[in-house]
Each structure stands twice: as C-alpha cells, then as structure tokens.
Design goal:
Layout lengths: L11 H18 L6 E4 L6 E3 L3 H5 L6 H4 L7 H12 L8 E3 L1 H8 L5 E5 L3 H10 L6 E4 L3 H8 L7 E5 L8 H15 L4 E8 L2 H9 L8 E6 L11 E7 L6 H15 L6 E5 L3
Parallel strand pairs: 1-4, 1-6, 4-5, 6-7
Antiparallel strand pairs: 2-3, 7-9, 8-9, 8-10
Helix pairs in contact: 1-4, 1-5, 1-10, 8-9
Bound molecules: S-adenosylmethionine (SAM).
Organism: Inquilinus ginsengisoli
Catalytic activity: adenosine(2030) in 23S rRNA + S-adenosyl-L-methionine = N(6)-methyladenosine(2030) in 23S rRNA + S-adenosyl-L-homocysteine + H(+)
EC number: 2.1.1.266
Length: 274
C-alpha cells in the first residue's frame, strides 16, 4: 500500500467528492430518524496542510481556489462553512477528510463506521476519534468489511467507497462492490468516487454496474483533452440519490467547474440505467 491521502488532501477531487458527500449527509439530516454512515476508505480524518500536502501543493488548486468564496451555492457554502469550522484562525491550515465532514453533520443519535487498512493511517484515525462513542473504527480490508458490516442498523444511511485506485482493475472491483453493497443494503445511499484519467476504464466500470435505483454519475473535468498520465478530473457513482438533491448538485457542479478548471473541462450529472 503506497497511497497516502495526506499528500492529496484538499485537492480538486477531494473538493468535488466532499461537496457531494455534504449534500447527501444534509439530505439524511432532513428527516428526524437516525442514520448510519459507512466510510470504507477513511484515510486519517484530518489533514494539516503544512505537512505532506505542502509537498505536492495539490490543495492550492483545490480548496485553495474557493475557500474564501462568498458567492457559492448552498451546498458548496455548507461545505465551505464546515471547512472554515476547522480553521478558526481564518487561515486555511486544516483540511477535514470525509470522516470529519460526516461527523460534523451527525446528530447524537447518528452513527459512523470507518474502515482503514493502512496501519499508520489506521492508528492516526483511531487517535483522531478516540473516546467518540458514535464512531467505530475498523482496521480491515474495505471489500471484506463491506460484507461484514452491511446491512447496518439503522437501515437509513450512506456508504462512501473511495479507494486509491493504485492497483489495476480497481474500476471493475468497484462496480462489483457497488453491486454487492446494493444487494445487502438495497435502501442505502451509495457514493463511489472514481478518477478520470482516460475514458475507456471509466466507461467499462459504468457498463459493469448492475441496475441501481435513482442512480447518477456526477463528473467534473478540468481539461478539454484527457491525458491518461494525469488526473483530468473525477466522478462519483451515486445510487438511491435522495429526492431533492439533484438540483442543488447541478448548481454546485456548475459553480465549481470554472473555478477548479485548468484548461477548459466540463461537468455533468447524468442518470444511470435503473
Ligand atoms: C482516497 S483515500 C480516502 C480519503 C477519504 N475517504 C477522504 O475523503 O478523506 C483512500 C484510503 O483507502 C485506504 N485503503 C487502500 N486500500 C484499502 C483497502 N483495501 N481497505 C481499506 N482501506 C484501504 C488508503 O490507505 C487510503 O487512506
């Protein structure tokens, strides 16, 4: 396992993923019933941008481009408020990962399970949430945990799948995992992140998906031409998209795209076959 998210925290892909995540968790909070969230590839939860992230500087072209915006649409504004909550000095020093963003939106009756396989990152994640009785942390393989932890109690909730795509064939494994998760937890919201380097692996992954209810792909690219050697953009497969989230997501992607763009690019929110 070579991938360490600390080098990439707050980059363009994190911004897109985390804005979508905030929209989904906000929708879950819209009803009084408790929810359960499972973050299968959790990372360490909180990133000091002066540490590893400063070595790549990726966050400068991600959260760094929008953190002081005052004209963001509601979903992005909510996400920016959460990020600012971790930076009370007003300077962008800390970037919250998916576990911290979900946790910030939880009510006392909601629960979060975090899975992380990397031994060091797992230890840091454990330290981050020590003493938090609403958060369970698992040191195990995500694909095996998916079978062990689903279906959850309560049954309302969200699954985030966010692998590093460092091994070949991860796209097809993702499609299979989404199918397995949906069979075990048909009512669960699924958000599964993927990189856009080249089009064929993405199209093969989307073609390998089983029919899913209220399913969409949200994508945002930063360049007009795709060069397979670079991260041209990213996307999320969404299933059981809560009612009322589609329009705010369109607004968010339309606002984000020109602000994150490097040389053109585009965004889309398209339905998948159900
Ligand atoms: C893209 S990062 C996660 C970022 C995090 N979800 C966020 O948005 O803040 C992927 C994480 O998955 C972990 N990982 C890689 N393979 C895994 C596996 N098979 N099971 C569980 N975790 C894994 C990596 O160590 C890394 O921390």
């Amino acid at each position: 396992m070579n991938y360490r998210h600390a080098f990439h925290a707050g980059n363009q892909a994190d911004v897109v993923k985390h804005v979508v995540l905030v929209a989904l968790v906000e929708a879950l909070r819209g009803k009084a019933k408790p929810f359960f969230a499972l973050d299968l590839h959790a990372g360490i939860g909180r990133y000091a941008l002066a540490a590893e992230a400063a070595r790549t500087g990726e966050y400068i072209d991600g959260i760094g481009r929008i953190d002081s915006a005052t004209d963001a649409p509601p979903v992005v504004a909510r996400y920016l408020d959460l990020v600012r909550g971790f930076n009370p000095s007003g300077r962008l020093e800390i970037y919250p990962g998916s576990p911290r963003l979900i946790r910030a939106l939880m009510r006392p009756e909601d629960r979060l399970a975090l899975v992380e396989l990397h031994p060091e990152d797992h230890a840091r994640l454990q330290a981050e949430f020590r003493g938090d009785s609403q958060v369970a942390i698992h040191h195990r393989d995500a694909w095996e945990a998916l079978r062990g932890l689903l279906p959850p109690q309560p049954r309302r909730g969200l699954l985030l799948i966010d692998p590093p795509f460092e091994v070949q064939g991860e796209q097809l494994r993702m499609a299979q995992a989404i199918g397995a998760a949906h069979r075990r937890w048909p009512e669960g919201i699924i958000a599964a992140w993927y990189p856009i380097k080249d089009r064929p692996p993405v199209d093969a992954m989307l073609a390998a998906l089983p029919p899913l209810p209220r399913a969409w792909t949200a994508e945002l690219t930063l360049f007009d031409s795709l060069f397979p050697a670079r991260l041209n953009g990213s996307g999320l497969i969404l299933a059981n998209l809560p009612w009322g989230v589609e329009e705010p997501l369109r607004e968010a992607l339309a606002w984000l795209q020109p602000r994150l763009a490097r040389q053109g690019g585009s965004w889309r929110l398209d339905p998948l076959p159900s």
